[in-house]
Design goal:
By secondary structure, the chain is mainly beta. It has one helix at about 1-15; strands at about 20-25, 30-35, 45-55, 60-65, 70-80, 90, 95-105, 125-130, 135-150, 155, 165-170, 170-190. A hairpin with a 2-residue loop joins strand 11 and strand 12 (about 170-190).
Length: about 210
């Protein structure tokens, strides 16, 4: 009796989700920023460390429903709120230095992801259409750049907010986790040179002694 009940429950569980998505490559990226020197007078809001890409690309396979077309809603979620005054720049471990995430896909199956898409207000969801009985592969490129959000404190670069990935299906309750995009790791260091006063020559003119 117990074995029969287990088999029946297992059959119900397997058929409950008729479409699935799985990460098959990339993810859990740690950003290698290296040693960086940032001018003290760099304007607030300016890019102070240009884009740093990650490889291999983030690859996701989605298996369609056997009986009908489905939509998968794939969500990028940042672990913290944006830095004050920004909608898509997030704090790092160093005060005054924020990180901005960028995503794009040049594969035919792009899930409608715009080129150079950011993550506004800690969440972005793309819609992946899954035709009945097909397997779709999505490959996304990702990079980060660093923005000055205020006076920058020099020091070691150790962390950025993690970016998790999950998906839901239309007409299906529940949300399922994928491999995180960014693990939250960051390596490198930042130095901010002290202000210096330039040597200025001043013509004092001629005078009698």
């Amino acid at each position: 009796g117990q074995l029969l009940l287990f088999c029946c429950l297992g059959g119900l569980s397997a058929s409950a989700v008729a479409a699935t998505c799985t990460t098959v490559g990339g993810g859990n990226y740690v950003v290698p920023a290296g040693p960086r020197t940032i001018p003290r007078d760099a304007p607030v809001g300016s890019t102070v460390i240009p884009k740093i890409g990650n490889s291999p690309g983030y690859t996701m396979n989605c298996q369609g429903d056997r009986n009908q077309d489905r939509d998968a809603y794939v969500t990028f979620k940042v672990a913290v709120a944006p830095a004050p005054g920004y909608s898509d720049v997030y704090p790092t471990n160093l005060p005054g230095l924020g990180v901005k995430y960028h995503f794009s896909s040049n594969t035919p199956y792009g899930c409608g992801l715009p080129w150079d898409q950011g993550i506004p207000n800690a969440n972005y969801t793309m819609v992946c259409h899954l035709p009945m009985g097909t397997t779709q592969t999505w490959v996304g490129g990702t990079s980060v750049e660093f923005i000055k959000t205020g006076p920058i404190t020099a020091g070691s670069l150790t962390s950025i907010p993690s970016v998790t990935m999950s998906y839901a299906l239309n007409n299906e309750p529940g949300t399922w986790s994928l491999t995180p995009m960014y693990a939250g790791g960051l390596t490198g260091s930042v130095s901010v040179p002290a202000c210096t006063t330039p040597n200025v020559s001043v013509d004092m003119g001629k005078h009698k002694t």
